[in-house]
Write a structure and sequence with these properties.
This protein is mainly β. The protein has 6 helices and 25 strands. The N terminus is likely disordered.
Length: 430
């Protein structure tokens, strides 16, 4: 009489001071999410599965069960569109700053296609970052059709979604709605200004309508400055399936043999102190680990734009520097309008890309402004928009091939009917 093999769980505990993310990463099996929320002690973790833990796929891939949404979808070198991965190992490393990275290594059961799910924590922070990296060891090119940074299962209930939306001069409007069955999607295809309309971050309130200081709340923020997609699929399993990553629309990636692809991190946090608790977690983590000089106070500044717009001149800049210094300010920033030789920048339809001082406006150049700033005891900042040009500019006249445009199509022109985006992936443009 033969006995069936009994799978042995390989529990992975990824914890912060107040939160825990618990995984079952049994070698040869799938990666399963057991818990994300309040911090759990080892005695409780040991009984999670028996106590009715979530026990859902921690990073679903498209293939064997195609009816559900997937975080990763690929077409293998031979054209097979199914993927089925199993855990091959667990590795943990610690960086010099104390950040701890846990990597769950997985590989397709048939193809030499490797997928690693990574989690990073920081000492003293209640934020967990997650991302994936994939490596193609197949004989030919693998096409990545979808490549989400992270996925999270949330039990169905009185769950509310908080998100930000808006438009120019109307940014950061708050929307709070209950999550019902169906799909909710937040996405961006603006490219260079990806928080202009929606934002790549959300909060999920698990105890009904969002409250500022009470209630279990999950926060998620994608660390990416390009096109993004966040969506929540609430299906017949009675789970909210949250996905976040690069927007794959028109962005499939061809991964050559031996190449790897790394997604941007998705930052997750949890608090039982409502929206504000999540905000505080993110703010502290952001200041300590993501913002340049995040632990330092910012200078009090005056910007020239709303004062004079394009009407830049030395006397006006000097007066503004004196004014901000007299008010105890520390920085003056000269905004748009200071550049352009052949084509002076007098409005928004010319001169981008021609970063040459207009000496009719500033006879003594930038150095003259630097000297004036020093005399007033303030720092000097200057505005540029290095990723742009205009059709009316010396740069475009000399190098029309420097812009981004679809082959065999006219260039798409933006603000003022003349603005174009430079191809910063081109080394010559750089």
């Amino acid at each position: 009489m033969s006995m069936p093999a009994i799978a042995k769980a390989e529990i992975v505990d990824i914890s912060t001071p107040k939160t825990s993310l618990i995984l079952d990463a049994e070698k040869g099996g799938g990666l399963r999410l057991l818990h994300y929320g309040n911090r759990m002690e080892s005695t409780d973790i040991a009984t999670l599965k028996d106590a009715g833990a979530i026990n859902r796929n921690a990073y679903p891939v498209y293939g064997i069960l195609p009816q559900g949404e997937a975080a990763m979808s690929v077409t293998h070198a031979d054209g097979n569109m199914t993927t089925d991965v199993e855990v091959t190992g667990i590795n943990t490393t610690t960086a010099p700053d104390g950040a701890k990275v846990t990597t769950i290594a997985m590989r397709d059961k048939v193809y030499p296609f490797d997928l690693n799910v990574n989690y990073r924590t920081y000492p003293g922070e209640d934020v967990i970052e997650t991302w994936v990296d994939v490596t193609n060891n197949e004989k030919g090119t693998v096409r990545l059709n979808r490549f989400m940074s992270g996925y999270l299962s949330v039990r169905y209930g009185d769950v509310w979604l908080s998100q930000l939306y808006g438009s120019w001069a109307n940014e950061g409007k708050l929307s709070q709605t209950p999550l019902n069955h169906g799909v909710r999607m937040i996405k961006n295809k603006d490219g260079v200004r990806n928080s202009h309309t929606s934002h790549a971050e959300i909060m999920l309130s698990l105890d009904g309508k969002p409250q500022e200081n009470t209630g279990r709340t999950i926060g998620a923020a994608l660390e990416y400055s390009g096109n993004y997609k966040l969506f929540i699929d609430t299906d017949d399993s009675d789970y909210h399936h949250f996905f976040a990553g690069i927007n794959e629309e028109n962005s499939a990636y061809n991964l050559k043999k031996g190449e790897s692809f790394v997604t941007p991190p998705l930052a997750l946090t949890y608090s039982e102190d409502g929206l504000s608790g999540v905000s505080r977690n993110f703010h502290r983590w952001g200041r300590n680990h993501r913002l340049h000089n995040g632990d330092k106070e910012r200078s009090i500044l005056l910007n020239s734009w709303e004062g004079v717009y394009f009407d830049i001149d030395e006397a006006g800049m000097a007066n503004m520097m004196k004014d901000i210094a007299d008010m105890g300010g520390e920085l003056f920033v000269m905004d748009d309008g200071w550049f352009g030789a052949k084509y002076p920048r007098d409005n928004d339809s010319t001169s981008l890309g021609d970063w040459v001082v207009d000496t009719d406006k500033l006879p003594n150049g930038i150095q003259g402004l630097i000297d004036t700033a020093k005399a007033n005891g303030v720092k000097l900042g200057i505005w540029i928009e290095p990723e742009m040009t205009n059709t009316v500019s010396e740069l475009y006249e000399k190098h029309p091939e420097y812009i981004i445009k679809a082959a065999n199509r006219p260039a798409t022109q933006g603000r003022g009917g003349t603005q174009l985006v430079l191809d910063l992936a081109n080394p010559k443009v750089q």
